[in-house]
Design brief:
The protein is an alpha+beta fold. About 55% of the residues lie in helices and about 15% in strands. Strands 1-4-5-8 form a four-stranded mixed β-sheet, covered by helices on one side. A four-stranded antiparallel β-sheet has the order 2-3-7-6, with helices on one face. A hairpin with a 2-residue loop joins strand 9 and strand 10. The longest helix has about 35 residues. The radius of gyration is 21 Å and the shape is globular. Bound molecules: flavin-adenine dinucleotide. The site of flavin-adenine dinucleotide has 23 residues, from strand 1, strand 3 and helix 11.
């Protein structure tokens, strides 16, 4: 067992940290206010190799592991989890291609991601099916050699900007998970339309939009998972990407703690800095406990993935603990800053709004507990 950080990891962390300080923090509040994603920041992150880090070298990527991917995510999230979510969302779209794509699909689509600063989206959710992935109704029908997709996907990160989408659909909704397949759908496909952009509580810099599929023809070359294989692929994708949500939660919590400690040293009540009041100090200590524990959890989950240890339970524990901890930590940071914490003069109210969605996307905190409990009950 070795808890040390290698020189390579240090280099990666330093690069991402510097990028966050120079490019994300200065624009975060404005992008939040305007609900605007800073595409120039995405392009700069791509140039630096901070986007799509896990694309294998043979497809033009850096071939880094999930642990390295999450080390980057933690640093970006320190600046703004909205901007970070949109920068790292390509991972969600490229993971099913990495897991299930054939060589031609990997060459084409992973190659696209590494040759140009473009975005891709992952689409399982629908108005009537979020947690209940097997309840999706977006339909695919085989017509000759091709497939025709009809339906609506919603809450799709980066849908407005994506060059292609990994879309999950079913041959027959009544078949539930047995009917689901997955398809790579190009942005310029006839019948594909990006709909309403969501006006969100937090992570407002991240684009989230509806996707309409109206008789969209997908060539057989773009079938990623055949009927009956899509559900398993979606679940395995989440297993691989959930630790990264915990990494984002760690970055957000570290920011909350840094802001709270700085304030607690300056602000005086009853003649002493508030950090000297035990009840305030306890909140700070609790934040540090949650950060350390979440960081270790995402690192273990990432290490598992990189070393071929299949352990969805740790991925879900990391995601659930990290998301719930981030929410509590952000609320406490607002509390430490008192009235100032409740205003937009300080960044902690944004952290509180941003943290909430960590408990919702990529499986809610309740769904993580169901995944964990199922494994416990199945022995
Ligand atoms: C900002 C944002 C970005 C997103 N990005 C994407 C994306 O890129 N791609 C994508 O496909 N989706 C995306 N989503 C969708 C997200 O994954 C879903 O919102 C999430 O899975 C929850 O589904 P739902 O909203 O339908 O809630 P529901 O499933 O309706 O759940 C509502 C509540 O009921 C609880 N609940 C549901 N079932 C159970 C159960 N069996 N036991 C106990 N409690 C239960 C849930 O935990 C939740 O509290 C995004 C969502 C948001 C908000």
């Amino acid at each position: 067992m070795d808890f040390s950080v290698s020189d390579e990891h240090k280099g990666l962390i330093d690069t991402a940290r510097r990028f966050t300080k120079e490019r994300i923090i200065p624009v975060a509040a404005e992008c939040d206010r305007e609900s605007r994603f800073p595409m120039d920041v995405f392009k700069a992150a791509w140039e630096l190799g901070l986007v799509n880090p896990s694309v294998p070298e043979e497809y033009g990527g850096a071939g880094l592991g999930e642990l390295e991917n999450s080390l980057i995510t933690e640093q970006l999230a320190y600046g703004c989890t909205g901007i970070q979510t949109s920068i790292t969302a390509n991972q969600l779209a490229l993971t099913p291609i990495r897991l299930a794509g054939n060589d031609a699909q990997k060459k084409k689509y992973l190659g696209l991601l590494t040759s140009e600063p473009i975005m891709a989206s992952y689409a399982t959710s629908e108005p009537g099916a979020g947690s209940d992935v097997a309840g999706m109704t977006t339909k695919f029908k085989k017509v000759g050699d091709d497939f025709v997709l009809n339906g609506q996907k919603c809450w799709i990160t980066n849908a407005t900007y994506a060059r292609f989408y990994v879309v999950f659909a079913t041959s027959d909704a009544a078949q539930r998970h047995k009917g689901i397949g997955a398809f790579i759908v190009d942005r310029d496909s006839e019948g594909l339309k990006v709909g309403k952009k969501e006006d969100k509580l937090g992570q407002r810099a991240s684009d989230t939009a509806v996707l309409h599929l109206d008789d969209v023809v997908v060539k057989k070359e773009n079938v990623l998972a055949a009927e009956g294989q899509g559900f398993k692929l979606a679940m395995e994708t989440f297993n691989q990407t959930r630790p990264d949500i915990a990494a984002g939660a760690t970055g957000l919590m570290q920011r909350a703690l840094d802001e709270a400690v700085a304030y607690a040293k300056e602000r005086k009540t009853f003649g002493v800095p508030i950090g000297q009041h035990q009840l305030v100090a306890a909140m700070l200590a609790e934040m540090a406990i949650k950060i350390e524990a979440t960081r270790l959890l995402y690192m273990k989950a990432g290490w598992n993935l990189d070393n071929g240890v299949r352990d969805p339970m740790t991925s879900s524990i990391a995601k659930a603990f990290g998301a719930d901890s981030a929410m509590q930590t952000a609320v406490d940071a607002v509390q430490v800053l008192g009235g100032n914490g409740y205003t937009k003069e300080y960044p902690v109210e944004k952290l509180m709004r941003d943290a909430k969605v960590l408990q919702i996307y990529e499986g809610t905190s309740q769904i993580q507990r169901i995944v964990i409990a199922k494994q416990l009950m199945s022995g």
